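User: Round two. Same drill as before: sequence, then structure, for each protein.

Assistant: Same drill it is. First protein:
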Amino acid sequence: MVSMALQNCPALVLNADFRPLSYYPLSLWSWQDAVKAVIADRVAVLSEYEHAIRSPSFSMLLPSVIALRDYIRPSRTPAFTRFNVFLRDKLECQYCGNGFPAPDLTFDHVTPRSQGGRTTWENVVTACSPCNLRKGGRTPKQANMPLRNRAVQPTTYLLQDHGRSFPPNFLHESWSDYLYWDTELER
């Protein structure tokens, strides 16, 4: 048996159709929440760690992959959040094209608010600080800084697809079959 700290045993949570509830952030539950859900019969265990938990009258292997028994319909329209804008734009500045960690990014109004621009999916893009400062209170055309991609409202599917490009820091080997089963295979 492999010795491993319990906090290092999260469970990958899949919807009833065996797709992850989300890719970025990856849908994970703590071992405690996973065990509670198993005992309440709200999930099916698909894979387990080699680590068991025990009480005087009970023993079970910790679940590493669980699937909800009831399907949760994904939202058709994702929430308009700073992070979802970054995810839509693949964590890349839409002016220079360079990729950055999320904390190093800002969002920029394509048509500045000072010129009547609104804070909407269609008017906000990801920008690095130098490009955002350089553009200032001008439109991309006025600043001679063309956008790499047009700002549009993404679908939940698009955000999930972009999220697959950013693997989490921890991936247990039992998860791989469930995370990438719907991606195109190499020929």
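Second protein:
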Amino acid sequence: MKSTQINAFAIVGIKTRTTNVDMQAAKDIPALWEKFMSENISDKIPNKLDDKIYAVYTNYESDYMGAYDMYIGCKVDAKNEILTDLIKLDIPESSYEEFIAEGKLNDGIVYNKWMEIWKSDLDRRYSADFEVYQSGIGQDEETKVSILIATKS
């Protein structure tokens, strides 16, 4: 875990509203990923700053057990206007704790790291947390996924 300050940025992509109650997110999040990948949403995002894919958790109702929005998209210039049916999300500047999930996505590395985060005593802001994925990584390939959690300090 590493503390870092991240400047405001924007992503463009798709979203869903979900909750961790009754494992609802275990259905909604894979469905959103399936849509993002099968419809090649990344290719439809104009003026991307890079090819990384961001999964953002925001608009928290309360804590990690309340409802929240989940976006999947790519980083864009914050001044860009979006003329498609995609959604732009502005992420404010904040202090973050960075966690790294390492291994194969099929082995549940990201979910396992979230379980660790949920059990931690982090002083979370519950504003916008996000994961950063390298483009083109297969489910069975070794990878590193950064998970950044907004903190109050």
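The chain has one domain: 2-151.

User: Perfect.
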